[in-house]
Amino acid sequence: MENILSYLENNQLAKLKEVLIEENPVDIAELFEDLPKDQCLKLFRILPKDLAAETFSYLSSEKQQEIVENITDEEIKHIINEMFIDDTVDFIEEMPANIVDKILQNTSPDTRKLINQFLKYPENSAGSVMTVEYVSLKSDMNIGQALNHIKKVGIDNETIDICYVIDNQRKLVGFISLKSLIFLDDIIPLVDAMETNVISATTTDDQEVIASLFRKYDLTSMPVVDNEGRLVGIITIDDVVDVIDQENTEDFQKMAAMDPSDEEYLKESVFSLAKHRIVWLLVLMISATATGTIIRRYEEVLQSVVILAAFIPMLMDTGGNAGSQSSTLIIRGIALREIQLSDIGKILWKEFRVSLIVGVTLATVNFLRIYFIDKAGLTISLVVCASLLFTVVIAKVVGGILPILAKAFKLDPAIMASPLITTIVDACALIVYFALSTHFLNLA
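^ that's the sequence the OP posted. Answer follows.
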């Protein structure tokens, strides 16, 4: 890439084109991101047309817009014709209205119809991520006819590893791999060789469900049918990888108490970043006043035995950490479809047993530290460690159960992550701590 930049700066265009032809489109697209507009346009026009179109599909939406605004209608038409329809739709969805109009004016009526059809599907649905560039085979073909058909139309399709079989009404009836077709005799009827247990999706299925099916059945592509079972497109593994990445990013953001955003961090404005964070911070700040209320209620207890205040941060931090461990595991299990609502009893029992082991271990170590190093006295040491044990048990159980309850109420389990769990557990830890202190230290 350093050589490419050198050739570009020195205007060695012939040499530059020779080098670029050997590069991967993904790597070329990365190079574009660091170049100013004038050099981007120069580099883009040096690329052979097919390579330019493929590279274009990997560019960020900002660079795509920059290029489309400064190239000719003929160049736009070639890019759209060479891109797969699902990539074209993704590109158009990110563009402002004036750019969309410019693009649609330079597409064929058939392509324009397909684009409009895709844009009507619900956001994040199977229909919005599928492609219509696939190979379908008629059920009345034999193996030889199927192979000849693939040779004729396969070059223009996104994948031909798996071919889907349809009847005369375009209803999906089966599938067959290219590998199977190659090794079978030409005269064998396709219906005798195809697999009929097809894993398919409907156009309105959520993309998260699609991703879980790909993971469960180890698929590389999946057919998409309409409500009447007619084949309308396929979803390929490269699109599912993008979906998984998007869903994981969204979950991480929710678990950190932020509204999800599709923008890259460095490209998002300060105001936008603040807007996505402030709402949950306000909610958590207001809810955290409960801990302050509890402390004020037991102010006399703290004044009587001042050393008790020194152990409050340790109890709250340990409880929050213990709860977030459990909630993270359960949220991930729900996302992977490993945990169902019916498993709530098993989760409760398992987290309770885990919490006892963890709590007893932490309490024992803490007792030795408080009693022998801090010299806090036997009663205070026992009160603090008993509070720690109860806090860990409560935190583990609450952290395990809340995501399941969120799922039951049709909420995203990710919102029941560290910040919210910590707020709840903090209040519970203080109540237990002061209740035990009041009782065993005779401070009532």
